[in-house]
Design brief:
It contains four helices and twelve strands. The protein has 172 residues and is mostly beta strands. The strands form two sheets. A six-stranded antiparallel barrel has the order 1-2-5-4-3-6. A six-stranded mixed sheet has the order 10-9-8-7-12-11, with no helix packed on it. The longest helix is centred in the middle third of the chain and has 5 residues.
Length: 172
């Protein structure tokens, strides 16, 4: 799972030729031309190759996968989580999307202490937040503010941040 990251979910079939709606939560799908994605089926990530796709809105596309040729087959995929291969996003312009940061470790820059691992990104408010699971299993929130981020190391999957004194104590 560290070789992929979640980018959306499949909706309902569209028409009778096997197209299905794809609701994406990450813009990587728009920025990187990929031949395939992974669908989570029975807990396993299975590659599915695109025959074609077209955008319907900023967050929805209609996709046609190879070998899915009718509405019945497409209906079997409804609700599947969609994952994007990290290796394809690495080839891109170096810009990371929010979804790609899930699974990265956050380190407090001044002292080098590991704070925890990013489990999710909260984009529901004007201030984006990292949802972080600490070593002792607590879930905490840390602002994903550019002024606090010193470095993002894609290779080592680490985010070095200058976390303001007292911020970690607020979450307890």
């Amino acid at each position: 799972m560290t070789e992929t990251f979640h980018i959306g979910r499949l909706g309902k079939p569209h028409g009778v030729k096997g197209e299905i709606s794809f609701h994406f939560t990450d813009d990587i799908f728009e920025r990187v031309d990929a031949e395939y994605v992974f669908l989570e089926i029975d807990g396993l990530q299975v590659p599915f190759f695109f025959e074609e796709y077209r955008f319907r809105s900023e967050t929805t596309a209609l996709v046609k996968f190879e070998g899915i040729d009718d509405a019945t087959r497409a209906a079997e995929l409804v609700g599947c989580n969609v994952f994007f291969p990290r290796e394809l996003s690495d080839e891109e312009d170096g810009e990371l999307s929010w979804a790609e940061l899930v699974g990265f470790t956050i380190t407090n820059s001044p002292d080098g202490i590991i704070v925890g691992v990013v489990t999710a990104i909260d984009l529901s408010t004007i201030n984006t937040l990292f949802e972080v699971k600490t070593k002792d299993g607590q879930q905490i929130l840390i602002p994903a503010n550019d002024d606090l981020i010193d470095d993002i190391d894609r290779d080592n999957r680490n985010i070095a941040m200058r976390i303001p004194e007292g911020l970690l104590g607020i979450n307890n």
